[in-house]
Amino acid sequence: GQNIDQPTEMTATEGAIVQINCTYQTSGFNGLFWYQQHAGEAPTFLSYNVLDGLEEKGRFSSFLSRSKGYSYLLLKELQMKDSASYLCAVKDSNYQLIWGAGTKLIIKP
Amino acid sequence: DAGITQSPRHKVTETGTPVTLRCHQTENHRYMYWYRQDPGHGLRLIHYSYGVKDTDKGEVSDGYSVSRSKTEDFLLTLESATSSQTSVYFCAISPGTGEADTQYFGPGTRLTVL
Q: Reduced to 3 states, what is the DSSP secondary structure of residue B83?
């Protein structure tokens, strides 16, 4: 079967750095996506990786290792507004997105 | 933000009643999707559409049907709602299904089946 694993919940301090991991086992790989979802709202697109390596976008970076079936989202200079769930999703061989259950990130002052 | 609206935003209904949720887009994207989101689960695909009158089943399609008579509208119908269909339903759109084609989500509909 297909599987995406993420930690259920993480806590970090305002101003710090946090890394959210995602491991996947899917039938085929056509890219990995990270979305942010604030409570009661829709998921919003953060980043996309299809090649190995690090993609940086402002305070957020996303890393991919296809050989290890592993990705992480790195959030720097954490702000209170970063409190949200972070969803990892992999596009499989049928070009359908397979979703992890999400990581709830709690930011403390 | 992509122009996607969903209606209604909240609905409470009783077991056995039919329910229709509507998704409307102004982006002229070819692909439209219906997902459900439940605690402890990732988003799960119910049905998707790849054009007018062209639809296909997703992972959790039992008990649901869809229709797409216009590019901009994608309807999800629960023929006879059950309590297990209590969930938050999201519509998403994308221009295609290529590697980099990103899905953009509507605001969601919270459905409660009593």
A: helix
Q: What is the 3-state secondary structure (H, E, C) of chain A?
A: CCEEECCCEEEEECCCCEEEEEEEECCCCCCEEEEEECCCCCCEEEEEECCCEEEEECCEEEEEECCCCEEEEEECCCCHHHCEEEEEEEECCCCCEEECCCEEEEEEC
Does residue A44 carry a pLDDT above 80?
Answer: yes
Q: Inspect the interface and report whether the beta carbons of B99 and A31 lie closer than 8 Å.
A: yes
Residue the block writes with tokens 């209604």: B8
CA B99 vs CA A33, A56, A103, B96: distances in Å: 10, 19, 24, 9
Q: Convert the pLDDT of each residue in B60-91 to its tens digit.
A: 999 999 999 999 999 999 999 999 999 999 99
Give backbone dihedrals phi and psi of A61, rounded to 5 degrees, phi first: -135, 150
B105 lies within 8 A of chain A by CB? yes
Kindly state the average pLDDT of the residues A79-89. 98
Chain B nearest-CA distance from A82, in A, is 19
